Amino acid sequence: MMMMMMMMMMMMMMTMLGILKIKVVIMMPQHITPQIPYLYFQFHFEFQVVVEVVVVVVVVVVVVVVVVVVVVVVVAVVAVVVSVVAAAAVGLKY
Question: pTM of whole model > 0.85?
Fold first, then answer.
């Protein structure tokens, strides 16, 4: 649930950034491409979308890596606890 919320927040933030950048592009494309501001805007918008996708992918990868690390640590801790308990049980028996 938290993961979903985080993802939603990230998506919202990315969308906001994208909108802001698009607004900036609409406001000042004159000095870059006076003849074809629409074409420049289109290209920039597409580039922005690609960047957002890349960022989202990176975020997903990072989250997955973190989850895997946490799982491995938990498993290691459980294994240690079990081995200690087993050793204690064996010690008590003999």
Answer: no
